[in-house]
Amino acid sequence: MSPLPESATIRAMNEQLISDNIPKLRQRVRRSAEKSEFGNSDILVIAVSKTRPAEDIRVAHAHGLVNFGENYLQEAVQKITALQDLPLIWHFIGPIQSNKTGLIAKHFDWVHTIDREKIARRLNDQRPINLPPLQVCVQINISGESSKSGASMKELPNLAHTILQLPRLQLRGLMAIPAANAGTAQQHEVFSLMREALAQLRPLAPAVDTLSMGMSDDLEAAILEGASAIRVGTAIFGPRNR
Hints:
With 242 residues, this protein is α/β, with parallel strands linked by helices. Helix content is 43%, strand content 17%. It has one domain (6-237): TIM Barrel (Alpha-Beta Barrel). It is built from nine helices and eight strands.
């Protein structure tokens, strides 16, 4: 038998990696959910597919994943178009510039990174009428980092109130990205603050049900503190090339 071309060999290795990683991830999620006191047994796993080719997404979908998160808009739109034959749910999880809202409103099912009123209003106004309301989360800059996007806790009530008045958006909850390299204790502290913030939001928006927090390195702490959605890239697809 002739050896596979190098590109085919790399493709086969990637497929094997993804198929091996998904059951391992599910086991991590299940074990953490069993330990959590918040009854969050049905954790939404969002596969962070930025920089990954459409072929990797097809493999992940073949192993049961449906929700995919993208940061880079132009790259994402190309993949969404290429994968229209699959019943995928697309989540935008990157910072949002005003000139990008039209494409986001047209192509995505969820947006996790609304951090100001202007962006919310533009997404609402540009959401096609033939599509269901865009499911959205408010991104909170929970660690107070100047380099990160996100609304402050002080800004949250007014921003949430604005979103609730916009008919083409449906407020689902909150999202956060803790400081990088945080220790386990700090991870728990930050995620606990997010859980408390969601509880404080419920009198204004009783239907909110989503805490989008936790990634490959800290998903256990996030789930233990009440995460209902985690955003996982490396633990599914392996280390990124860029």
